Amino acid sequence: MNQPLTVDLNCDMGESFGAYRLGHDAAILPYVTSANIACGFHAGDPAVMRQTVRLALQHQVAIGAHPGLPDLVGFGRREMAVSPQEAYDLVVYQMGALGGFLTAEGGKLHHVKPHGALYNMAAVNAPLAEAIAEAAYRVNPELVLYGLAGSELTKAGTRIGLRVAHEVFADRTYQPDGTLTSRRLPDALLTTAEEAARQVVRMVKEGTVRAQQGSDVAIRADTICLHGDGAHALEFARHIHQTLQSQGISLQATFSKAAQ
Fold first, then answer.
1. How does it assemble (predicted)?
2. CB 9 within 8 A of CB 254
């Protein structure tokens, strides 16, 4: 008998800052199985981190650190010329910040997923990817490393001995080499929940995604990312959750006890 298909649905959260509110965390949490919580560098302040950790624990979703570049103004989506050592230090520092709130609230860190430009840089830059993987491993070798499917980051995580979740994106378009279309280019984002759901189901069931140029690209989908800051994030989360269930695809966090 074939093993039933299972996938993790993750969402970037805790990305408000001070008086500025971003995302629909409380409304989206019932539809996801893991949350990537901003750690203060690209978004998130101490109060937001505490509140988001509490919300995620209430909904019993797996909690991950979402470290980014120190760029509040650019929301961590602008590249910076950081060295591998600087990347290591940035990741360890931010994991420690979120880890403190998790300890205080009785929770446990499940995974690490870099944010924005740091994520995209690590997908193609092997030394940077190795530094990020080492940071996660040194903090806790039991953590799961989330990275772009088939990227330098997932390869680095596997080499160092971490459990790795190959990530795909519900609302982003792809290039023929398996990388994401740059947000600076037209059609980088899928704009309807129906489009996103079709792409997700194909990635999970068939292991392929249609590149922007029309070719099919092989892809591994362990976890699916939803962007909590999107204008239609809640609609996307609800529709994708319902579509996956209707297709007989179970939802649970990667490497959760239920999945083992």
1. Forms a complex composed of PxpA, PxpB and PxpC.
2. no
